[in-house]
Amino acid sequence: MSSDARIVTAKYSIHTIGIMSEREIFDVLVIGAGPTGLACAIAAQSLGLKVVVVDKGCLTNSLFHYPANMTFFTTPELLEIGDIPFPSPNQKPTRMEALEYYRKVAQHYRLDVRQYENVDRVTGEDGRFEVHTTDSFERRKTHTTRKIIVSTGYYDLPNHLRIPGEDLAKVKHYYDEPHPYFAQDVLVIGGKNSAAIAALELWRHGARVTLVHRGAELHRHIKYWIKPDIENRIKNGEIAAHLSTTVSQIAEDSVTLMTPGGPKVIPNQFVFALTGYHPDFEFLESLGVKLDSDNARVPVCNPETLESNVRGIYMAGVVVAGERTNEVFIENGRFHGAVIAADLAAKLLGANVEQPIAPEHTVAAE
Ligand SMILES: Cc1cc2nc3c(=O)[nH]c(=O)nc-3n(C[C@H](O)[C@H](O)[C@H](O)COP(=O)(O)OP(=O)(O)OC[C@H]3O[C@@H](n4cnc5c(N)ncnc54)[C@H](O)[C@@H]3O)c2cc1C
Questions:
Q1: How many domains does the chain have?
Q2: Structural domain of residue 230, as residue ranges?
Q3: Which of 7, 243, 313, 361 could tie 327 with a disulfide, CB 3.0–4.6 Å?
Q4: Which residues partner with 273 through β-bridges?
Q5: What's the pTM value of the predicted model, to 2 decimals?
Q6: Any residues with Cβ below 6 Å from ligand 1, and which?
Q7: Do 177 and 208 lie in a common domain?
Q8: Tens of pLDDT, residues 129-155
Q9: Are residues 236 and 298 both part of a single domain?
Q10: 364 found inside a domain
């Protein structure tokens, strides 16, 4: 066999293996490898089920895209999944520690996580769903699964301002890190934790910061250790704040604010519009999942099992709360795995597992 022929054969067999694995039938396919998706996969896999997790980005993609220097509001033990302790020398762990932790947990449980594969659509029905995906090279794949868990989070779609200039490259809906904004006029829009933390960090690293919030005061959910810091910076004039104010226009070198005293144009080089995010409702509806239009577009699902109105499709994590994205977070969403696993055990294995009670929604800061 010529060396060229060997190369062709090798390529062919890799390709064949790829196709064979695509034709595997999974018991459960989890869409989204966030903390909840991983917790669900661990719980289902612990029953002996064949589970795959598919994520459009990397493992814990949302957390990876959080501000580089962020610290969680939650103590480490409340972020734990799969009964694996989260060791941290800090009272509140950092983003970097959380990435390390969830990666180690996924490794420990040998989870089958397919990264960089976007789930585009789902066909079929309970017992035999076809999950159609596209990878980062635009290659299409299909996975066959008996059940689906949707834990797609809310961090991919920002709430837009819908004002002229929002599409300029200098406008960002995600805050990353302060260094590029040194000695620049930066506008931060928002009145919750993310806006307050970004404004403080930017100011501490030499940016000239203006904070704009449509409310008459900063949000009451701002954490008690952040609130006095931002309030004192504003009181001292170190961060300029405009309350009861909206932004009406963003231009290359300026922004126009609608203040209680009338329009005001201020110099500007960068805008962080930190006005929240929302779940991909269109995707949920494409699955046939109904959204409660009278109740914050909460997906219709059985509160005891988290199975949606589409038999065989379960909701998990923050998507369960619809538009109220501050009601489900890692602390309580991580328990959705056990709730769903009990129902899967009954339906796929005929086992009579006591159904754990789904956690109450509580309100957290964003
Ligand atoms: C700055 C910040 C700080 C926070 N601090 C805390 C805290 O201290 N404590 C706490 O409990 N919570 C905190 N939260 C909230 C918490 O991070 C989220 O509620 C949590 O990540 C939700 O988990 P999830 O698994 O439901 O969704 P996510 O973690 O958002 O995971 C969803 C996953 O689905 C993937 N996905 C989406 N659509 C598709 C698709 N079509 N195909 C394939 N994959 C897809 C995404 O890439 C993502 O990886 C914070 C949030 C922010 C923004």
A1: 2
A2: 171-273
A3: 361
A4: 189
A5: 0.92
A6: 31-37, 54-57, 61-62, 66, 70, 72-74, 118-119, 151-153, 155-156, 194, 280, 283, 317-318, 329-331, 333, 366
A7: yes
A8: 999 999 999 999 999 999 999 999 999
A9: no
A10: no
